[in-house]
Amino acid sequence: GKLALGSGFVFGTCLCACSVVCGAIDLILKQSTQATLKLSPFRAMGYMSLPAFALLSMPGLLWKHQMPRPWELHLGRSTSTDFAVVLEAFKLQPAILKLAAFSGVLAFGYNTFTTYLAGRLSATTASLVGNFPTVILLSLFLFESD
Asked: Left (φ > 0), alpha (ψ -120 to 50) or beta: where does 38 sit?
């Protein structure tokens, strides 16, 4: 088929490829950390969760980007940070923070589970199983035809 090469498509493809590589590195590090430090998966994720949250929050707090037209009209400015958008969403619907907190609990549980699996299985096996859907979707999108 014909290969779709729009700038958004190429960027998304690069992000998916980076995601697969980072997922493999993550599992290898989890396996080696668990073997070396003898931490339980729960404790390992507990020690990593706050530094990871702080590191990943920085772009949301500092990076301004273009807003979609409805948000631009609502906020009264064309660029804003993700944090400003979340604050505005909280004003409109306070229950949104409960969903965000629940999402964090689910992410903590998922990471604890993958750390447990990385310690029990080989990192290669766990990485293959975890990234299999991403590889399939990436292959389908890459060979998409008009």
From this structure: left
Closest CA to 118 of 106, 109, 130, 107: 130
Q: Specify which residues 80 forms β-bridges with.
A: 65
Which tokens sit at 68?
Answer: 């979609």
Distance CA(123)–CA(126), nearest Å, equals: 5
Token pair belonging to 66: 């273009």
pLDDT at 123 over 70: no
pLDDT digits (tens, 9 = 90+) for 39-59: 788 888 888 888 888 888 888
Please state, in angstroms and rounded to a whole number, the distance separating the CA atoms of residues 146 and 144: 7
Strands (E), 32-107: 65-66, 79-80
On whether the CB atoms of residues 127 and 24 are closer than 8 A, the answer is: yes
